[in-house]
Amino acid sequence: MGLSRGAAIVFVSAALGLTMLGVSACGGPGGSASEAALPLKDQLIEPGPLGEREYGNRNAPVTIVEYVSLTCPYCRKYHATVFPRVKRSYVDTGKVRYIIREFAIGRTAGTAAIATRCVPSSKYLPLVEAYLSRQREWVSQEVRPDAIYKIAKSSGLSRAKFDKCLSNQSIMDGLTEIKQRGRKYGVIGTPTLFINGQRLQGAVTFEQVKALIEPQAS
């Protein structure tokens, strides 16, 4: 039997602190942000408590760190239209090391983020992209564990393991720390990209990403 709606809300709300700290938002104007001091590159790429979900050459001249909320329509658009081009042109060719970090906005996004950390690392990106591309099937103001699990099931996650993961304190604490670190680096919305420490946020285009990668990719 799956977790009740109330139980899921309690787990995710209490542990991830997502009952609105007030400054997180999906989207926002595209382009670079200047209000917050940008972090040093070596600080930004310090591994998080849950280990990194990263792709490409670890010794690439450019490192991109993406902060994503799985309920965010701007993140969905980025992963549908921009990320595939970035991956094909730069990640797969060894020019970019690409790191994805969770920045869940709301309890529903938090629940899905937990699920992505309960599958093998090889299935992490496919599940992230499934949640993004199929947002209409599971995103709502109230947490719907059954709908969230339906997406996760495609990655081979059993319902018993899914339910157990929703109360996994280590995962929840780790996701909380990842989000807090993101805030320290000036993340206030999603998607936010740091390209060798240079920040883009919101409706990011391929041309903007390319303009920051190219001078540093040789």
Protein traits:
single chain, 218 residues, alpha/beta, Glutaredoxin, 10 helices, 45% helix
Task: Report on the architecture of this protein.
The chain has 218 residues and is of the alpha/beta class. It has one domain (5-216): Glutaredoxin. It is 45% helix and 14% strand. The protein has ten helices and seven strands. The chain has helices at 5-16, 41-44, 73-91, 107-116, 124-133, 135-138, 145-152, 159-165, 169-184, 206-213, and strands at residues 25-26, 53-56, 62-68, 96-102, 189-190, 192-195, 198-201. A hairpin with a 2-residue loop joins strand 6 (192-195) and strand 7. Helix 4 (107-116) runs parallel beside helix 7. The relative contact order is 0.24.
Radius of gyration: 17 Å
> How many strands?
7
CATH topology: Glutaredoxin
Distance between the termini: 54 Å
N-to-C order of helices and strands: HEHEEHEHHHHHHEEEH
Query: Can you tell me the overall shape?
Result: globular
Main-sheet strand order equals 2-4-3-6-7
CATH architecture heading:
3-Layer(aba) Sandwich
Quote the beta fraction.
Answer: 5-15%
Number of self-contained structural domains: 1
**Largest sheet properties:** 5 strands, mixed
CATH class, anyone?
Answer: Alpha Beta
CATH superfamily: Glutaredoxin
